[in-house]
Amino acid sequence: MKRILLAGAGVLALTAAASAADLTMEPAPIAPVVAPAAFDWTGFYAGVHLGGAWGDFGTDVWNDAFGNAQAAIGGVQIGYNYQINQIVLGVQTDFAYTNLTSGTSIIDGYGANINMDWLGSTTVRVGYAIDTWLPYVKGGVAYGNTQGQLTAYNGAVTSDWSTNKWASGWTLGAGLEKAFTKNITGFAEYDYYDLGKAVYNYDDVGFGVDVKNTTNVVKVGLNYKF
């Protein structure tokens, strides 16, 4: 009986010692939770866009008869962004083809139309990064190629005079860009262009005309970030 009691006491002592040792052991470290890194907008990018354009070709001749014009537009852009905390600064150049045309019959025997086939801009962009979202505004220099055409109808004979002009002015716009992957982003944007005044001189018929152009563009596009 004495031996049984001594054995039981020994087991109790060993159990107590093991429990005391467990109490002094440090708990296993827990791996820290790492939040996913925010999207970095810094870098060069290039892409394509398409959309719609509508504009007004205004002149003080023929009572602003040219009026409004509408057309599709599509082109390319290239730029660079630099992110400082949540502020994203950038510069971008874009160039697009369109067929924005307005025409009229000015007087008996004469018709005229104005066409813009190229439209571009070089702008500064300022955005506020919200992880993969980037709302932004932009502004800068705008330029485009316009053509004025005058047509004279004389019985069965038609005579055409045309002249091309590169016009320049300014543009303002705003948009929202979204990063889908670390390299692919998409955007939607509105831009207003004022290309100032182009002077078309038709020496063969002895007169010229000054034409102003303002254009609105809504477009969507994709960029590849390098």
UniProtKB/TrEMBL annotation:
Origin organism lineage: Bacteria, Pseudomonadati, Pseudomonadota, Alphaproteobacteria, Hyphomicrobiales
Q: Where in the cell is it found?
A: Cell outer membrane
Q: Which family does it belong to?
A: Belongs to the Omp25/RopB family.
Outer membrane protein beta-barrel domain residues are 31-226
Keyword Signal set for record: yes
Fetch the InterPro entries from UniProt: Beta-barrel_OMP, OMP-like, OMP/PagP_B-barrel
Report the main location listed first in the record.
membrane
> Know the name of this protein?
Outer membrane immunogenic protein
